[in-house]
Amino acid sequence: MSPLSSSLLNPRLSFSLKPLFLFSQSSFAPRKFQIPRQFVSAKRKTFSALASEQSSATDNGGRSGGGGRSGALSPSPVVEEVQRIDVNPPKGTRDFPPEDMRLRTWLFNHFREVSRLFGFEEVDYPVLESEALFIRKAGEEIRDQTKFSMTVAVFHFYVQLYCFEDRGNRRVALRPELTPSLARLVIQKGKSLSLPLKWFAIGQCWRYERMTRGRRREHYQWNMDILGLPEVTAEAELISSIVAFFKRIGITESDVGFKVSSRKVLQEVLRCYSVPENLFAKVCIIIDKIEKIPIDEIKRELNATGLSEEAIEELLQVLSIKSLTKLEEILGGAGEAVADLKELFSLAEKFGYSEWIQFDASVVRGLAYYTGIVFEGFDRKGKLRAICGGGRYDRLLSTFGGDDVPACGFGFGDAVIVELLKEKGLLPELNLEVDNIVCALDYDLQGVAAEVATKLREKGQSVDLVLEIKPLKWVFKRAARTNAQRLVLVGNTEWQQGMVGVKILSSGEQYEIKLDELE
Amino acid sequence: MSPLSSSLLNPRLSFSLKPLFLFSQSSFAPRKFQIPRQFVSAKRKTFSALASEQSSATDNGGRSGGGGRSGALSPSPVVEEVQRIDVNPPKGTRDFPPEDMRLRTWLFNHFREVSRLFGFEEVDYPVLESEALFIRKAGEEIRDQTKFSMTVAVFHFYVQLYCFEDRGNRRVALRPELTPSLARLVIQKGKSLSLPLKWFAIGQCWRYERMTRGRRREHYQWNMDILGLPEVTAEAELISSIVAFFKRIGITESDVGFKVSSRKVLQEVLRCYSVPENLFAKVCIIIDKIEKIPIDEIKRELNATGLSEEAIEELLQVLSIKSLTKLEEILGGAGEAVADLKELFSLAEKFGYSEWIQFDASVVRGLAYYTGIVFEGFDRKGKLRAICGGGRYDRLLSTFGGDDVPACGFGFGDAVIVELLKEKGLLPELNLEVDNIVCALDYDLQGVAAEVATKLREKGQSVDLVLEIKPLKWVFKRAARTNAQRLVLVGNTEWQQGMVGVKILSSGEQYEIKLDELE
């Protein structure tokens, strides 16, 4: 038996066999019958001989292929060196082999189920959008722009947009987030939408990150958004849904919390000092770095925007406040910032998650379009980046030329939460689990095994059908790997009486049963 | 009441309000209290006034914002014209608003459930891959190549690859199909994989199509693949799974069928005439056009490849065969083509779908890497493009420099099947359905309504919580739209006794119940 033919009889062998043949060559390797190599070679032309005749490919009378299943047996063909491709996914991206996919599915199912419990409807948008959708019309300067990425020009303060030019010279981008697409769709649908709308989406988002350790260029994000509600009840409902999610997966208020503030805090302080509104986003950019760079550097940058030293001092003082009472003392009780926040904390109590949230004036969040309450989920050990973040963005639609609708929402990534679950030992054990493994004991019964499998599947049972004839030892090993509950064996003796053998794999219980009675 | 403030009180109004304010301006519109405009204006600077002071933003003593919730009331701000963005998704792409998403979810759930019944494990790969993964190493010439798309160079004969250059000068492409990524991952995982492996994926695929009517640049594809099995049982199992899918969604064998052939038929004919193997793919390209262009044009193109007229005649004769018996008469019974196909038809009987499949020698399918049996699902009225297609590709891995593994699989798009369902009147009616709509009758009870919602959600019931105070008429209208089963009303009189009002919306039954007893 030649190596190639034996490899085709046994796939495990074939997997380790060094390939000599390009795919365009014959795959006529024998499968069930063996033709001695010498015999075949004598009857057939080799591929190299065929290749030399290529330019005058006319019928030369050699009907050599008619009866043969032999091509690849010829050992002389083109031994062209095929360069091995890079087997890794592109930099910053992930494959999802079954074990990783099970985790992703588990996570997404919880996202979906929570969204369903809260009465939200699922939506999605193209992963490829017009670049214009992510570029702010006004305000921020564009810096570090190249043909294929740009920073700051996007709604995210620091995001590198993953953008290109397509063939029609259109500027397109892989979406860095979902909210601008939502805004686009809401403007498009206009008055046909019933407000308030409650939408959720789970979508892949892309950034052209510098490839530092652990940073990826793509992640999935769960978004929930409520449009049409100016009331703080909307923010309260959104945080409630994230809490519900955490509870489902075993995360408690001693593991995570929400830091809550309002953009209006900053705005009220700036207004006290008559700082122009159009500096607001710029100030937010600087504030957002407060835990990352030294305080003197923050001061220097704020000063460079034109803020007085007095304003900077008060700003930093206000930002350090962690108590709502204290904030009220400083800002007074009549401002919206304090009123909104007080209402949110009061609702949190009714919703039953007041243990989860705390006021923290330093939270501004990284999206330029937030206008009111902002919040972020954080791990209480302080080891991880923000788990999720959200806020109110009542003015986003008008930046696209649409009519504004009061709106708020959050994004929840698939990366940090998995790190947290890992750290807490809360990652679920997820295995492939099939109800049945069905196996014929000899080749002629393969069709019967197929019949058995079809019957079971029609009853809603999953079946790993063994599609080749294998020793029982192999079958048991496979059953263990697929966590099969039951083994159904189709053997000659039993089948002659219309029976199949059954083994319950957990208990070892064994019996024979008529196929019709198999449930 | 100013138009803007009233709009914020009533989201329906705000939706139709022409926006005059950019998002970076204040969103301090009053919500619950009204401050007469004159009063506010007198106390506060307008935004335009603030803007003019931008360059010297120091504390001028005007703590005008401290107590106000007034900013946006000032009617004088920058009335900058915002150009409305294109509200449509990019050419050839789709949004999925709730109604479309429900259909997509319904379809994908069936894909997933069938895959589960067959014991397949879900996987996924990056939507963005190295361009090299889709370019054939040898054989086909590259034509019509531009910087951002190329034809024929890819495994699909005719696909325009949607490709770019990224910032690091790497050539990347939005995947046109999933199989090359699967091959890459299998090579990467190597011997750690247990064969046979049965994987499925549902992924978005991209092509740079010319935008003719109904053609899109993206679609979702359900793939199932079996690797490690040289036996035709693998193909039989795959077709069986598609049949199971059709049956689940109400499609019968009188609606659709499978045309089945084998690439080996063509190969055997070509070998009879000593046509070099490396012309095989080129001939397939031409054959694949057989129903699209005149037969004389087909002959001319085949002749141009160097095929003799006799070979062309026999080729076309063989390709017109629709009966396996006839094929056997011409090719003889010893070849693999006939043996494979006979085995498949015999298995189809055992699996119970022989009514669904028919032999058709003209089927070659559009992927360059197929080596054996190929099949496509078609609608029997002949109105639509192929519904799905698949085949054996035993040599794909070695084109990437990996070790070959016998393999077969199929791709099933999300577009044609929906057209078919539409035509047959089989599209499901899918609506948002919530278990409860919960509503407080006055503002002070909003928190109680939140409490009720949380309790119900913890019991697994979905709740559309009304987050604002609305007239009952509005609530009933909303309940009708969300198909709520039950209305839970929180009113003052009942709540004083710890009770809530319940109305079963289908029957009209009404009662009061203690919150603790609400199930």
From TrEMBL, chains A, B:
Its EC number is 6.1.1.21. This is histidine--tRNA ligase. The keyword tRNA-binding does not apply. Keywords: Aminoacyl-tRNA synthetase, ATP-binding, Ligase, Nucleotide-binding, Protein biosynthesis. One of its GO terms (cellular component) is cytoplasm. The keyword Protein biosynthesis applies. Belongs to the class-II aminoacyl-tRNA synthetase family.
